[in-house]
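batch job 7 of whatever, protein = Death domain-containing protein
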Amino acid sequence: MADEAAIFVAIALGLLFFVIPLYLLTFRKKEEDEPQAEVKKEEVKKTEPNTSNSQKKLRNPVSKKKVQQNLNDNGINHPYLISSLKGHTGPITSLDFSDNGKLLASSSEDRTVRLWNVKDFREKDHKYGRGNVEFDLASDVAFSPDSRAFVASLANEQKIRVFKIHKEKKETGSTTMSISPEFDFDKIHKSAIISVGISSTGKYIMTADKGTQIIIWSIKGEVYDKIDTLLMYNTFASISPCGNLVAACGFTSEVKLWHMQFSKSGDFQQTLKAFEIKGHRAGVLSFSFTNDSKRFATASKDGTWKVWDINVNYLKSQEAYLLSTGNFTGYEEGLNVNIALTHDYFTVALSVGSHLKYYDSKSGEMDEDILHAHPGSICALRWYTDSKILVSSGGTDRMLRVWENIHGAKANLADLKEKLKRTTSASIKERIEQQIEDYTKFLKKFNKV
């Protein structure tokens, strides 16, 4: 028994002096190895962006600088994207270009209206003037003809506020802009105002609400007339660029247009029904005029868009006639759909939810489909007066995006080549050849020639 006890004590001492130190040594070594493993993971992460960038460069025909610029815009990577205008802190509700082509106004649920310089669109920095909408927010904005003021519809109070634009030159030569409220119109609308506009003649202001009412105002806020659209409800309304027509669409499948009649001395006389645009099989969601008020584009719940010639003598009962049509997919009830026809007639831009599509306005064929042009639904589209750039506004991303019109450039190039064949004048021929060279050089950047 004594021998067995001695053996047991020897084993216990062996465990104490050999096994336990071995365990502590192993545990210490593991602790020392763990930081090295973390460093290796960090080194792997550092190498990942280089691999990704090289792959994107191979897939994208534009320059590395352009790719990097687009990737910085919340991950949007499309060669048509020129820039993103950032500044709003809430969803954007509307936008409008000034008649002089120098400014873009945008309104937002952040209770501000911002004025952007068009000349900065292709620059890295985008300066803006800011004006607060006290105790409310602007649901829509429209510039005055002289571009020195604008009107905004107030979402909560359901009335109109006039703002004045102030410009001040600094010693450095730069110009700053500020905005101040001037006065409010009386509250007459009983439901939310969805559209506001000022005629190019400066003779009247139009407002339309979610019901069926359109009100025609004087510049000072006096009511000229009230129109019942009889559309069940309105979805959009606008004044033609010439200032003679007011148009509205809604639940029904037609667009209604009214003629604003003034005397030679400028006094309002009456509102006359001009004509209706018929051809869709379901409610019209959006429409747009060209700058010369001769063409008109519509988009409907039936999944079609159409381009119309409205250069008719409607006072003698002449009707608009259809020029072309196209189809689009992806519409669901309640989804935002916007349409904009270029002022040169070549391109139809259409947004369905967050997707932006370019169509040939004559053939109806889709030329480009930009998926998720904004993270959320697009709320407005506007072409600049030269038809070369398009501005879209998003809701959830709180920014405006500026896009190239590649299809328009291709269409203009083809049109110029046809004109060159028919030209006999040396001076005109030289001018056309220069334009062809410019468009060709531009399209080569996008591998489109």
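notes: The chain has a mean pLDDT of 85.
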